[in-house]
User: What shape does this take?
Amino acid sequence: MKQLRRPFAVIAAMSMAVGMAACSQGGSDQQSSGEAASGGDATVEPGDITLWLAGSDTPQELRDYLKKTFETENPGSTLTIEEQDWSDLVTKLTTALPDAANTPDVVEIGNTQAPTFTTVGAFRDLTPIYDELGGSDLLQSFVDVGTVDSKVYAVPYYFGSRYIFYRKDIWTAAGIEVPKTLQEFSDDVAELTTDDRSGFAMGGQDWRNGISWVFANGGELATVDGTEWTSTLSDPDTVKGLKMWQDMVRSSSKLPTTERDVAYWDFLNDGTDGAAPAAATIMAPGWARWSIGDLTKNDAGDEVRDGMADDSKFDIFALPGVDGGVAPVFAGGSNIAISAKSQHPELAENLLRIVFSQEYQEMLGKAGLGPANQKYVSSLGDDKFAKTMIETAAASKLTPAAPGWAAIEGAFVYEELFQKIADGGDVTKLATEYDAKLTPMLNGQS
Assistant: This one.
């Protein structure tokens, strides 16, 4: 992917106000993290480096592994891991990355956020170690959003994919089977909707799930010609998808059109008051499984959900396409990069070698996070959850890798648009209006 790189200060000024909500391996398959790290320079001076992880998706066990392994393989050096909130990650990075005295050395960043920083020189060029980290085995769509002028500045950390979670008991009682097409899905969830239950719970501002209807109908959010991006909401295929989503959400969801980042699993479990389920169906990333199911206690005595153990009550399926098969859904997940201002770039590279080792990649998979290196997707398991995640990820799409994308998300432009559509607005008219608003923003213009 070819994009113009501009001075970091240009985008820094634009991005300061941005606050966002979000959402591999080279060598032998048997390579251990120790062997991977041996690719680094043994003469590297000891130092203290910091890794910023976004949100809580990386389990503590994996964090402990990174710290212990890094400090063992780099005697005299230390690794500090700091968790950052997704809500203000871009703002913090915009402030910290240019400051050599305070920059984190290695950062996790959302895949949709990556282009804002890769295009302005905020990250270290990883091209010299790209093959060592996994090269062509890395998830290509995530590599693309971290690449500028054929140089790789951010690589995939983990991927997730969205699919349908549903109350099988409710669907079965209604005599409804798993739909084969997207229109059948819309018809089914409308039939399951009652006065106090959503057939399909979706907030009106939830464009991250909603754009699957655009992609399924062959539409795009934007296109690029050379380095110039153009919003394509008014394209006939995009409009068709938006109208289809509008009809579905208005007939099937009881959630307010002002909602966006909703814990949909709460509605699927027990509603909001412990009574009957408030939704028969939801759409969520694969890792939502562990927030769904009947209540139980773990080994520590904490009350948790059982991960959908009762398969007569809870089940899943891939969102179907317009003509069958699997609909393209928005791929969730993260990229990882080294700050261009890191004072210990060689140590930071050694940390990435551990992250992309076979052992760590398989640890990600076992934790339900799609490993960046596609050689190790089998670590996700072979149950229906793993198979559906891999199947939907294979058909997934990313948002445009435009320089201004993070600013668009930070300004909640798509939330605003989708709410107006969910409220019953004229889709064609809104699409034309927002194309005019979004095109300059895609290109980093205010």
